[in-house]
Description:
By secondary structure, this protein is of the alpha/beta class. 34% of the residues lie in helices and 13% in strands. The strands form four sheets. A seven-stranded mixed sheet has the order 6-7-3-10-11-4-12, sandwiched between helices. A two-stranded antiparallel ribbon has the order 1-2. A hairpin with a 2-residue loop joins strand 8 (305-306) and strand 9. Helix 3 runs antiparallel to helix 4 (176-203). The protein is globular. The two termini are 24 Å apart.
Amino acid sequence: WRMVAHGGAWWRMVAIGLELSLHPPNLIPEKAGRDYELPLYLQPLEDLRNDFTILSGTSHPDVDGGHAASKSWLTGAPHPGAANFQNSISIDQLAARKIGLQTRYRYLSLGSGGISVSSNGVSIAGNIYAARLFEQLFVEGRPAEKARQIERLREGQSVLDTVQEAARRMKQRVSSADQRKVDEYFTSVRDAELRLAKSEQWQHKPKPKVDADPPQRIQDRARIIQQGKQIYDIMFLALQTDSTRLITNAVGGGSYVPVIPGVSMVYHDLSHHGQDPEKLKQLAIVESEQVTLFGDFLRRLKETSEDESNLLNRTMVLFGSHMHSGNHDNRNLPIIFAGGGFRHGQHLAFDPDKNHPLANLYVTMLQRLGLELDSFASSTGTLPGLNIG
Length: 389
């Protein structure tokens, strides 16, 4: 494993997962290759056409369970709906173990949560409050508050020192097999100590200043587009200030009527449209707004210069879902992959009956971040057809 910088700048990764997916005919082009006609949802992204790639015919083998598959979207762990399901680490957390300490925050888990998973298979809660995020990232605490935080970090380090010494004594009395487990434990403790030390260092450094007003808290959860815009704003500012290089954003559904003109039905019910024309019409309104937010985020990244390039070229952005659509089918996933310095502007269409492993894209992304690995989950290599620009 090693970390790789590019021209003095670092690669970044963002993964945006939509709990209720997207209606495929409005997103996936009929034609493969570069000379495709933009579907309904992508028409507002015409100016960004050469900045993203559309993928169809990909999925995770043996990942089933409808909505439950959201837990496996970034891990590829099989059978997430099973009673004995054990999840594995997500790609953002795998990357955070190697590059996370270079920034104030190793990663950000945003939105409704669940798609970012720790090394022991536990879903990491997402932060849905933009105002709280803004304060965390950009508002300096009072000196007394910072001192208390530093003291808490030091207390955590002293506890780890005590536990580690006890483990050393225990290691002398156990079998060789158990000693390996203790060594793994030591490694985890050392990693935790390093994170605590880094956290203390950041407490002594001022937070970045941004040319943005703190967001106002939106009380009505049905205002999903307004809330979504605030989260995207925070994501952009976090990347722009290099506060983190790894972000996940789980975009939830919800059993409420979105506050969007032309929409009068519950969002989740719309996703189970059963080909009803009125439901499809309203669903298209909601999902068009979601894709537009995504496009606006890409534009802001592209318009932000970094060295001789721009922030989008240095940031891989994954946008899609663990389901084909709202009908709980976990095959043929709708995926858009943008940025990261790849040669985009195409529709990569794989076999809809024998899906290509989505994990191959993950291997490509992790390698781009500088991780020296050849496999992840069900991968069989890197993603074919996706070339560096």
